[in-house]
Design brief:
By secondary structure, this protein is an alpha/beta fold. It has helices spanning 6-14, 28-43, 58-72, 134-137, 159-174, 178-194, 201-217, 224-252, 259-273, 278-290, 309-314, 326-329, 338-345, 367-385, 392-404, 413-427, 457-460, and strands spanning 24-27, 50-57, 77-83, 99-104, 113-119, 124-131, 150-156. Mean pLDDT is 77; it is low at 217-223, 295-304, 307-327 and 437-464.
Length: 464
């Protein structure tokens, strides 16, 4: 990490914090797809964001200059930092009134970075990275293929982190153009004063995933091994997009910010009690992480009352044509997440068939959905009771009793029995193994078995 670079300054600021930043390694094709998705989203909305970009060299800016001319029509201000090259300042885009160029000194570490920082009242986003050094590449050296160049850094939608990074970028600009820096501070303050909870984040995420998939389809890499490495990097970032969206939803809930982590821990322990296979627990884990993407279920589903258990098992892998509510709909953009979309969609079904969106009853409801709805409700009740004077054991007992009152009505009675065993363990000092998703390596949450049709194996270990 280059000394004095924006990336290094951000890492240093968070090194000893309670939330250290997790960085990852990204191929250039992944970053191009990410940046194009975020840039094109600017063209599709009316939020007039502040955009700060760093292009390493002016020649890379020239490749994107027309795109930035289009973006300027939809932005309040665009600032582009890069080491000066022939033509960098002469392109017509540079003459637009709300586009400013900052020609970096070649010795400035920011001249070796690749950044895109977007501050909008509707959402925030950024890509922040720098290319690996020749030594970092190892024995293989710098790759011949431009697509295989690797960059170290992060990308995120997290408002506080994006705002912090924007301040670091503006401080860098201050060294070259104090007047511009002052104007950018005013822009940032104005946006920050109107910044609300992300309203259109699912649309941003959907575009990111679409572009990542398109980038994957258009790759032309000589060997299968190199293709596989690039594929995995793209898929990992698709998962990261969803995890980051869910993470923001948790952060926005000041009363229950650990909901996803605790629901995942409870779900995994329930899965182990039921002796579910590892692939199913993994699917349940991802559904738990993402279960709050769509808190209100109001749409139809591919599953209908009277559907056999076997069809219900196969449905998540089938082509889904029914409408889902927006939060779950975005999950469908990845074939491997169709099963998770189904789990999340049906978490509001009731055991007695009076729930939504499909009015499924009993074993017609996907097993993971039944587990998810029970543990999410239990976690919510425990969280609400934390401020009471009751002991830990008493809080667990009260939350369990409230869930029991709804067994055979809202909840599967057999799962309530399993939750009772789990609560006994919690009352005796069992700790929940809370997991914070490592979004830089999100691909571990998937495996190839999710693409296959499921058979009766899904229910074989579950007591009828």
């Amino acid at each position: 990490m280059l000394e004095g670079s924006i990336l290094q300054q951000l890492e240093t600021a968070h090194r000893q914090s309670t939330r250290p930043i997790r960085f990852g390694v990204y191929y250039k094709n992944t970053l191009v797809a990410l940046c194009h998705a975020l840039e094109d989203h600017i063209l599709s909305e009316n939020s007039t964001p502040l955009v700060i970009a760093a292009f390493q060299q002016g020649k890379w800016y020239l490749q994107e200059a027309q795109r930035y001319a289009d973006m300027a029509k939809c932005s309040s201000e665009i600032v582009i930092m890069a080491a000066a090259d022939a033509g960098f300042a002469e392109h017509p885009t540079s003459q637009l009134p709300n586009v400013d160029l900052v020609a970096l000194n070649s010795a400035d570490p920011v001249a070796q970075e690749w950044h895109l920082i977007i501050l909008s009242p509707e959402y925030t986003a950024m890509v922040l990275c720098q290319e690996l050094s020749e030594a970092d590449y190892g024995a293989g050296g710098i790759p011949d293929s431009d697509l295989e160049r690797k960059f170290y850094g992060l990308w995120t939608f997290e408002p506080e982190l994006v705002q912090e990074t924007a301040k670091l970028a503006i401080a860098q600009i201050q060294q070259y153009n104090p007047e511009l820096a002052q104007k950018l501070v005013a822009h940032q303050n104005a946006i920050q004063s109107h910044l609300a909870a992300p309203k259109h984040l699912s649309a941003v995420v959907s575009r990111v995933v679409d572009y990542l998939q398109t980038g994957q389809e258009n790759l032309s890499i000589p060997t299968a091994l190199r293709q596989q490495a690039l594929d995995r990097n793209l898929v990992s970032n698709e998962i990261q997009a969803f995890l980051r969206m869910a993470q923001l939803m948790d952060m926005a809930d000041v009363n229950n910010p650990m909901a996803a982590a605790e629901v995942v821990a409870l779900s995994e322990m329930m899965g182990q009690l039921l002796e579910l296979p590892a692939w199913q627990i993994k699917r349940l884990r991802l559904a738990g992480l993402l279960h709050r993407i769509d808190p209100l279920q109001t749409a139809e589903s591919v599953l209908t009352p009277g559907t056999s258990t076997r069809y219900q098992e196969q449905a998540p892998s089938c082509a889904l044509t029914c409408p889902l509510v927006p939060g779950a709909q975005v999950l469908r953009t990845m074939s491997r997440l169709r099963a998770v979309a189904q789990i999340i969609t049906h978490q509001t079904e009731w055991w007695n068939g009076t729930g939504e969106p499909a009015g499924l009853a009993g074993d017609e409801i996907p097993l993971e959905s039944r587990i998810l709805t029970l543990v999410a409700d239990f976690q919510w009740r425990v969280n609400n009771l934390k401020s009471s004077p009751n002991t830990r054991a008493e809080i667990f007992a009260q939350a369990l009793d409230e869930c029991r009152q709804q067994q055979s009505i809202r909840f599967d009675p057999k799962l309530v029995d399993a939750l009772t065993l789990l609560v006994m363990g919690l009352q005796q000092g069992l700790d929940l193994p809370l997991m914070s998703p490592k979004v830089s390596t999100g691909v571990w949450l998937l495996d190839s078995r999710w693409d296959s049709h499921k058979t009766s194996q899904e229910m074989s270990n579950y007591p009828k």
